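In the present case, backbone shapes were mapped to integers, as reproduced here:
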Amino acid sequence: MRGLINYGAYCSINSVVQVLCGTRELREFILQVDGQDPRSPNSVAVRLKCLIYDMTKGNASPCDPSLLVNAMTLYRGAPFDVQEDSDVVFKCIINALADDCGIAKRIGSLWDIENENRVRCLRCNTVQSTLNKSNTITVLIGDNLPTELQQYIKLYTDITFTTCDYHCTHCHTGTQIEITSKVVTLPQVVCMRIERVRNIGRDTTDIVKTGTRFAFPETLDLKYIMKDPEAPVATVYKLYAVVAHRGTHYCGHYTAYVRDDNNIWYLADDSHVRVCSWEDVKSTYEAGSMLYNGVAYMLMYHKQLPHCVT
């Protein structure tokens, strides 16, 4: 692995790029992107291709992500002159690929999750179902929720959300609704975002980050979130990357842990890359001392073929 230069506010971008480079399907497909395709509406795919090509060379010096950042800036219409959350960076890159054409569009769909959302009116019990796509699964941290990912997934379909100020088109009243979600199809790669930031008041100054312990396994079974848990599809995934953050919600630093094809874990901290262990990765379960490596924010799991499951 090669490091990436940080020009001041790039640590979240560098961490996400390291994760994407560690995604073998993306790494293989991105090199097939045609930089001369006139149909391409943006240059994110081309710049990502060039950067990952440089990162896979056997050179020890860090790579420069500036051209990719410039392409991302043009795509979203706003500069990356301040640090963005890692999930914002991830969505920017993946959405840019999905909005492109050819092989780039295919890469953008690697994380696509098809969900069925059911909305129930709590006054008349009318249920409406809609299908939508997302590229992340949000994992909530709360007092009454499991603090281990596999247990959380097992209870996934039992987690409901209620909201007020909803006008029901069936009973024609203002009421509350209950929202539940189930997965119809699983992608090759799953991104899970741990919701460690929440607003405890009515002002932006009330936004806090929690370092509460939340454990995640190397191997994860996602059959429990499926609409049809008994469907004959592969649902076992293996962890290959973690994006971690240390500091507060307003100020901090992102790093990435990535497992390579030889099953070796690496810690990528901007231009510095070193071999680490699974024990190091597990240190991101919760906040520790001032020297800790941060808490996990994003988890990347890769689908395992049935004969690969152990």
Q: What stands out?
A: The radius of gyration is 20 Å. The mean pLDDT is 87. DSSP finds eight helices and 14 strands in the chain.
